[in-house]
Sequence to fold (394 residues):
Amino acid sequence: MIGWNWRWPGRRLTALGVGVSVVAAVMVPMARMTQVRAAVQPCLVSYQVNQWTGGFTAQVGLTNNGAPLTSWTLTWTFDGNQQITSAWNAQVTQNGTQVQATSLAYDGSVATGGTVSFGFQATFSGSNDVPADFAVNGVACNGGSLPGSPTPTASPSPSVTASGSPCDATVFCDGFENQTGTVPSGRWSISTPDCSGTGTASVDSTVAHSGGKSVRVNGGASYCNHVFIDDTADMPAAGPDVFVRFWVMHSTPLPTGHVTFLAMTDAADSGTSLRLGGQNGALMWNRQSDDATLPDQSPAGVAQSVTLSVNTWQCIEFEVNSANGDINTWVNGTSVPGLTEDGVATPNVSDQWLADPGWRPQLTDLRLGWESYASETDTLWFDDVALSSARIGC
Fold:
């Protein structure tokens, strides 16, 4: 992509002191990664484990779906003999099996839909199960309840994916639990635009947002390494107003250069693609036919988009209306102004996009994967993908 190339100062994260003794980190091969699927309200906690004999690290992500937080304390209970030895980005203390992680001065504020993360290293022997009673400021997360809480009254359940994740999509919900091999099949096929290089897409049974499977994409640099999983059959069933929801986890921050991790063929625009990805470190829509971006790639435009945290699951939703060309985008349940196009030219956001006021897309497929137009690479995972004629939610 040829366009603006504004460079932004990088940020460096420095670990602060914690409430337990600190030991040297040990470099070990990854043996296991486990991810917890949480309820939409009021908070979601992810828990990624990198385990070896006698020890492990855990990366914990907290998504706030309630009122904005000015500080937070996350509690949980180990069910074995796990003992935390060091931590970062939180003040962590342990009393027996009870653990408390408290925010620091720089990460206590979490907006509605926002995510914050911290990590720790620990020892263990025997079992090392994922904790089941996470709570933030005394409020149970992940659809659970606190000890002694009354059992909630049953209510009608929404449709679910094969993994059991709530999903109200009208067309499909796919958590990849029905995949039987490593090569995506069923509604999904491998697509390698331009040429087939080193980029790969495969079913991963070691990392998941919910259930036990996801799709892992090893995204290479340059055109030749583009790779996607492609659903060419279901998009028409969503109708003229398309809603898509998926969870994605990046291992690398969105780069300065232009990359894409979702694309849809537009039959009304000479078969070119409508693409969602990143540039200048933030999320961006790109229209392949004229290289227009949403938002504009000026500093003021990029500032109205959002970045994506790495090594934690992020919920991305969007709406594309073929009747009027409107686009709406939500990240972790919060609308993103810089990724919104409502037919009114907004300086630094949609004025470039609306240079083609007659754009009315006819989307024919859904592709998830990786395109890099320079030297950027990434390893990323997709899970709990949904397609609908109405908003689905996280």
The mean pLDDT is 84. Helices lie at 299-302. The longest helix spans residues 299-302.
